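hey so u asked for the seq, here:
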Amino acid sequence: MIDKLVEGIRRTRAPIVVGLDPQLNFIPEHIRDRAYGEFGETLEGAAAAILEFNKGIVDAVADLVPAVKPQSAMYEQFGVPGVRAYKETIDYCHEKGLVVIGDIKRGDIGSTSGAYAHGHLGTVQVGSHTYAPFDEDFCTVNPYLGSDGIRPFMDVCRECGKGIFVLVKTSNPSSGELQNRIAGDKALYEIVGQMVESWGSEISGHSGWSEIGAVVGATYPQTGKILRSVMPKNFILVPGYGAQGGKGKDLVHFFDSDGLGAIVNSSRGIIAAWQKDTYAEFGAAGYAQAARQAVLDMKQDITEALNR
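ran it, structure tokens below
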């Protein structure tokens, strides 16, 4: 699957992933009103509004970016209808040819980890039938439980041609409380990066990049520089651009000399762009076109930074 992602980045010249993390207050009133008119102010109504909103965003940006990243919690909070909207969003993105990174941040061991892996990346057997329940292309995984939590995902990745991004240095302000702790002579994030490099050496695509990548926040550019050297063949998923403060100039060291090796996420900076003064001209009715313009602006920012 990493080869498909690399090909998509080369084709679009946009190492960008759009975070489909909808909140109801991001969704224009006319979409919410339509959904509530059909389903009432219910969980079903919320899920219907989310799905329509997502489709509009995806239609507007699918030709500009290689991938999307739906955050499962934003759907799960609406219960079964929300989970159904999550799955329908994944399917719709696949119809548009996009790589889907399921931001699920799962972390467990043994058969439980295997169940997460099969449910999100692989298949399950029900009698004589085989199903791919969620069918993301990649998902995010928490490594805190060690290799017992990672290897079941690796097994499914081998079997089904999928990939994972392991949390290494996250973009949130308090990440250093644990991730920056010194163990021996290294920070914990560097040790986890070394583990990702080791796991990743076991599963690689034809492009030479591993199916096992890392999550490293744009808010810590010097850390990105360290981890790029620790993980030379592991793709880095970079959250924290835009709304969390990351800029194109902060991202240079996340990439290799060929401009590959990283894919940068922006969520509300794109999907809620219509609510920003910069894109106010589009209005609520043009929320999807505002998202498209936000992607174009992000692409320009990253391209200029990489070409300096």
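The chain is about 45% helix and 15% strand. The mean pLDDT is 95.
lmk if thats what u needed
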